[in-house]
TrEMBL record:
Domain GH18, first and last residues per copy: 25-440
Record SMART domains: Glyco_18
UniProt KW keywords: Developmental protein, Disulfide bond, Glycoprotein, Glycosidase, Hydrolase, Secreted, Signal
Main location: secreted
A biological process term (GO) from this entry: carbohydrate metabolic process
InterPro entries: Chitinase_II/V-like_cat, Chitinase_insertion_sf, GH, Glyco_hydro18_cat, Glycosyl_Hydrlase_18, IDGF
Any single Gene Ontology cellular-component annotation: extracellular region
Coiled-coil residue spans: none
Organism: Drosophila mojavensis
Top-rank taxon: Eukaryota
Subcellular location: Secreted
GO molecular function: chitin binding; chitinase activity
PANTHER family according to UniProt: CHITINASE (PTHR11177), CHITINASE-LIKE PROTEIN IDGF1-RELATED (PTHR11177:SF235)
The protein, known as: GH18 domain-containing protein
Length: 440
């Protein structure tokens, strides 16, 4: 009763606040339209999206791209976005949900034709950039989006290579080849160019009353590409995609927490591969906390274990690249929460074997690193699996962190990989719900 009253008072208070001081935390819902085109149980419909909208303050439509010759922004899937009117279908939801902002995102690791074109755009000078800016503004306006999200595919941290000495215990004798190679010798110049582009974009968009947000993709190093104080002033908010620090594609031999909140000590882990480090990086440069959002992935990263990985499950583990694809997402090295949940021990998989055999869940009572679950390889070296993931519980501890630090909110990547059918417990969108309830 007391909390109900408190809740009501809060609601009244919040609704009386003028909108520019918006005190309610953001819940930014990425919607990757690739989910709309998946098949079977993974197919995400407009009705599914509508069900999620009660929890979202923003929807970010993924993804548009850029033309490598003209640098104009373009749809990456014209048959869907234009011919089947998917852009318009999505923004038409604004009529029913007028308080939600809909943004269109460009890049996001979906724009795979000539990936270095994002850096080339930075180098291309103001005329080429004006073409990008004008085309972006035109698409945003034509399809009635509320703004643009920049998820530029800039050069990534090089994953370090790990090697075990033959016949040695991997944990104690692994060697790191950090190789102090320079990923981008012109990073300083690119940072200046990025800053200027963001300023020009923001000017153009604000003249049309449109929003501009920045998404920092996983393993894009913020120190190299973003002049935090200036970027902070020229965007409405910043989403840090603080996950995929380690992935089976980038780190095939090294299975470890893929999205820890804090640094897990020991075993030569890199100090910047965790949420807290990334957030502090921006906060220390005086970017207002209220503009900074933490990205949470609605999927886990899955490695294949071998006999040499041992049977303890405890990371860091020697692994053998991406695990077998899941039955619904059909993507090597990735399992969504619905798939993970159905692999955890339950009445229907007691006698299952092979890739369907149950996996052992190891929760994280410290709430610092996230959960993992695994199945040791059998005597023939088969069916070994190790998956690092956020479940509703650990996602909610990230929301708790957001509250404790008065950050802007959480950005969920993405709706279509949450358990939107409620296959796990009957609750639809369990990740989204867990985050929402903790953010309130
Ligand atoms: C960028 O990379 C350098 C070198 O690896 C690292 O020291 C720094 O912490 C990284 N910055 C961020 C924000 O991750």
């Amino acid at each position: 009763m007391r909390s109900l009253l408190l809740g009501l008072t809060l609601t009244v208070l919040l609704s009386e606040l003028p909108s520019h001081t918006a005190a309610a935390p953001y819940l930014i819902c990425y919607y990757d339209s690739a989910g709309y085109e998946r098949q079977g149980l993974a197919q995400f419909s407009l009705a599914d999206l509508e069900l999620a909208l009660q929890f979202c303050t923003h929807v970010i439509y993924g993804y548009a791209g850029i033309n490598p010759d003209t640098y104009e922004m373009k749809s990456l899937n014209q048959p869907l976005d234009f011919e089947r009117r998917h852009f318009a279908q999505i923004t038409a939801l604004k009529e029913k949900y007028p308080y939600i902002k809909f943004l269109l995102s460009v890049g996001g690791d979906r724009d795979l034709e000539q990936e270095d074109k994002y850096v080339k755009l930075l180098e291309a000078g103001t005329q080429a950039q004006a073409r990008f800016i004008n085309s972006a503004r035109d698409i945003i306006r034509r399809f009635n989006f509320d703004g643009l999200d920049l998820a530029f595919q800039l050069p990534r941290n090089k994953p370090r290579k790990v090697h075990s000495e033959a016949g040695m215990v991997w944990k104690s004798f692994k060697k790191f080849f950090t190789g102090d190679f320079i990923v981008d010798p012109d990073a300083e110049t690119h940072k200046t160019q990025m800053t200027n582009l963001v300023k020009d974009l923001n000017t153009a968009l604000k003249a049309n009353d449109l929003l501009l947000s920045l998404t920092v993709l996983p393993n894009v190093n913020s120190s190299w590409y973003f002049d935090a104080p200036v970027i902070g002033k020229n965007v409405d908010f910043i989403n840090l995609a603080t996950f995929d620090f380690l992935t089976p594609a980038r780190n095939p031999e090294e299975a470890d927490y893929s999205a820890p909140l804090y640094e897990a000590f020991g075993q030569n882990r890199l100090p910047h591969y965790n949420v807290n480090f990334q957030m502090e990086h921006w906060l220390l440069q005086r970017v207002p906390a209220s503009k900074l959002n933490i990205g949470v992935a609605s999927y886990g990263r899955a490695w294949k274990l071998t006999i040499d990985s041992g049977s303890s499950g405890q990371p860091v583990l020697l692994a053998d690249g991406p695990a077998h694809a899941g039955p619904q997402t059909k993507t090597e090295g990735l399992l969504n929460w619905a798939e993970i949940c159905q692999l955890l021990p339950n009445p229907s998989n007691v006698n299952a074997n092979g890739h369907a055999a149950p996996i052992k869940r190891v929760p994280d009572p410290t709430k610092r690193y996230g959960s993992y679950a695994y199945r040791a390889a059998d005597e023939n070296g088969l069916y070994g699996l190790w998956v690092s993931y956020d479940d509703p519980e650990t996602a909610s501890s990230k929301a708790q962190y957001v509250r404790a630090k008065n950050l802007g909110g959480i950005a969920l990547f993405d709706l279509t990989l949450d358990d939107f059918r409620g296959q796990c417990t009957g609750d639809r969108f369990p990740m989204l719900r867990a985050i929402k309830y903790r953010l309130l």
